[in-house]
Amino acid sequence: MKAPKLIISILGLLLFLPLQAQKINLNWQPRKDLNINLPASIKIYDAYGTLPDNKPVRAMYATVDLSDENLKLRSIGSNTIRETTKETYNRGNGILAINGGYFASNSSVSAIIQDGEVIAPGPSNEISRGAFGMKNGVPEIAWVNSRENDIPKKLTSPDIHSASENWDVSQAVGGGPILLKNGKINVTDKEEGFKGSHLARHPRSAIGYKDKNTLIIMVVDGRQEASAGVSLGELAQLMLDVGAKDAVNLDGGGSSAMVAANEVVNIPADITGGNRNSLRKNAGALVIAETQVPQRPKPIIFDTENRNYFETGIWNSSNQVNYYGESASRVATSNKINKAFYTFEGIERNNYQLASWFTVNTQNNSERINYILHSEGKSDTLVINQKSLDNLGKWNVLGNFEISPRDTLEIIGATKGKFIADAIRLVAKKGSPVLPKRGDLRIAVISDLNSGLGAANYEWQVDSIINRIPKIWQPDLVICGGDMVAGMGVSETAQLQNMWNGFKKHIIEPLHKEKIPFAFTLGNHDGPRSYPVEHKFAKNFWKENINKTGLHFIDDSNFPNYYSFIAKNNFFVSWEASSSKITEENLEWLEKQFQTPEAKKATHRFVIGHMPLYSVAQERDSKGNVLENAKELQHLLEKYKVKTYISGHQHAYYPGKRGKLEFLNTGAAGSGPRSWLTQSQKPVSTINNGYF
After folding, report:
1. For the purposes of burial, counting CB atoms within 10 Å of the CB of 149, is it exposed (0-12), middle (13-18) or buried (19 or more)?
2. Are residues 339 and 476 in the same domain?
3. What pLDDT is attached to residue 84?
């Protein structure tokens, strides 16, 4: 009789294990389209995936760093006034908002405490309800009841008879039930009087916190094709998965809405099927605003009714909801004739995040839509899936590009089906300079990258500059004015190897990967003639890595000490100016270079050397810090119609002109930037751009 029981037990275990292994499958990704317009203390993420029974689910959450003293959280609401979360967001000058608690036609069922004033006391009968509040700038979640004098009291448990105290908070919003307590799932739905359909899957809103400085705010879409919604238990699990310690459910269903950076983040379900253009009017919302509003680039939006938009072929207005702006999206069949275009007339040339908005149709839309950015001399083709619900109701970021008023964006279907044109958006990258018109040759100039003697690593700003060069400036050539490593007194071979390996890792390889040619001149810390061990090591390093430069050499017989090359019909000479004297041998070679056909036919001629002809920086105006015989050298360069002499060493950016010769004294990218002569202005690390 015992054997059958054992078999039944094993079968029961096997049946139970797959159920336990099932989970909500979501891959959270940062919302780049929103985060670019938010302070660093607020980050938004979204995900599209499946529930344990493979039903679809779409969710969004925000993290808020409350230690940012510029942020201000308020619970804004009313017993009688009804407005959408977006309207409350606007009224509160928000940058982030989520809907509040439950309400009836002429009252708020849930607690609302605004700036210390009790607007609505919340439940006063024989039940308590979960609520979120801020006390002395610290978030807390509690069970609340107000049956005594309509003053909300905080209870130690959902039991109405448990110990209580006045809930002395400055801002609060009620909801319920509580989802998490002390890092564990603790859904007190029955204790708080929730039952029936409320326990099923619906759109949901929740708020919680990871610690005293980190809020987590979440919405989950529901009642639509993209998302079935979640149960209270599933919502609790999602909040736990993203790091919440305590959390409470807010009003859900058609009320669930999040707004950030002036955009509705989710697809509210006030209308069956979901429609971001139709939000329910609620009793209140939690709104986060900024005390001091910094200047941010204003998004540039081109919709289909804008004069920057035009079509070719046969197009119609779509009947799909969730379009952007006031006009319906436009739809056409994918073929060679039907195309949509956006021009960028009227914008400033700059580096922008480029994004597209379109309505998603899983039945008819194409899986492959080509967005072709036509810019000066090149085209970039970007592919978007307009069938995927993961792309629903948001700005789909195509990438970061330098865009000018003469560029255009072409949209064309690449596979069978329909394709949509709705709106595009440009947001100038934070801290991005307005770029002048691109010439035939764009040069980025860096110099003096090194830090302390013998260092193999580089300061953060050097890595930042190298990272930004291909993303922002996109030059045709990078020139370094010397002092690539931190030598000049290093004799140990192992240390020299580490220094140059560090240079290769931090500078050469990233630029080589982006296929950006790299030219340089040796500096006094790179192995000058007076330090033979370092001089020899530098020469061997560059002989081994000459192919990494990507240069089109005219004469590399003396590389890396001095050499010549061309770039887009411009002629360059790098001479050895690692010390204050240019050798006669080097000068004779230079004159021969300017006699070559390449030099004579060149549009412009440039010379690169570490030491400058004239000083521009404090503590560098002395013998040994400038080239000897400066006037004679200048006359020589003028004789051969050199346009610009590019130098380093001074650690101070200063473009100038003397006689017929232009000078570009580069600043220090690494440590030790210096102030100009006779000036007290604070020095900065720099990168320089040239357009020719």
Report:
1. exposed
2. no
3. 98
* 571-622 residue pLDDT tens: 999 999 989 899 999 999 999 999 999 999 999 999 999 989 988 776 666 7
State residue 179's pLDDT score.
98
Per-residue three-class SS string for 186-250: CCCCCCCCCCHHHHCCECEEEEEEEECCEEEEEEECCCECCECCECHHHHHHHHHHCCCCEEEEC
Q: Name 257's Cβ contacts closer than 8 Å, sequence gap at least 6.
A: 84, 85, 86, 98, 99, 205, 219, 264, 266, 268, 279, 280
The structure tokens 């240390």 sit at 495
List the one residue out of 208, 305, 190 whose CA is nearest residue 247. Answer: 208
* 664 phi, psi to nearest 5 deg: -120, 95
Q: What are phi and psi of 297, to 5 degrees?
A: -60, 130
Banded model confidence at residue 692, pLDDT cuts 50, 70, 90:
very low
pLDDT for the residue numbered 18: 39
Pairing state between β 300-303 and 423-428 = antiparallel
Q: Contact, 244 vs 216, CB < 8 A? A: yes
Could you tell me if 423 and 460 lie in one domain? no
Burial of 32 from C-beta contacts in 10 A (0-12 / 13-18 / 19+): middle
Tokens 């000479």 correspond to 573
Q: Is residue 394 within 8 Å of residue 31, measured between CB atoms? A: yes
- Please name the residue that has the structure tokens 């072929």: 313
496: domain CATH number is 3.60.21.10
**Strand partners for 25:** 50
32: Cβ contacts below 8 Å, ≥ 6 apart: 353, 397
Taking CA atoms, 78 is separated from 117, 125, 144, 270, 282, in Å, by 11, 21, 19, 20, 9
What tens digit of pLDDT does each residue of 540-585 get?
999 999 999 999 999 999 999 999 999 999 999 999 998 989 999 9
Q: pLDDT digit string (tens) for 364-409? A: 999 999 999 998 768 899 999 999 999 999 999 999 998 999 999 9
Domain that holds residue 351: 300-428
From 290, 311, 346, the end of a domain falls on 290
Q: Are residues 549 and 479 in the same domain?
A: yes
Question: Considering the domain boundaries, does residue 24 fall inside one?
Answer: no
Whether 314 is in a domain gets the answer: yes
- Say what the pLDDT of residue 491 is: 83
Please say if the pLDDT value at position 451 is more than 90. Answer: no
Yes or no: say if 166 and 121 are a contact pair by the CB < 8 Å rule: no
Checking if the pLDDT of 52 tops 50, the result is yes
Q: Please state the domain count of the chain.
A: 3
Quick one: 423 and 459 in the same domain? no
CATH number at residue 328: 2.60.120.260
Closest C-alpha to 358, from 417, 443, 432, 433: 417
Side-chain half-sphere CA neighbours of 472 within 13 A: 19
The span from the CA of 679 to the CA of 67, in Å, is 38
Are 280 and 326 in the same domain? Answer: no
In a domain? residue 16: no
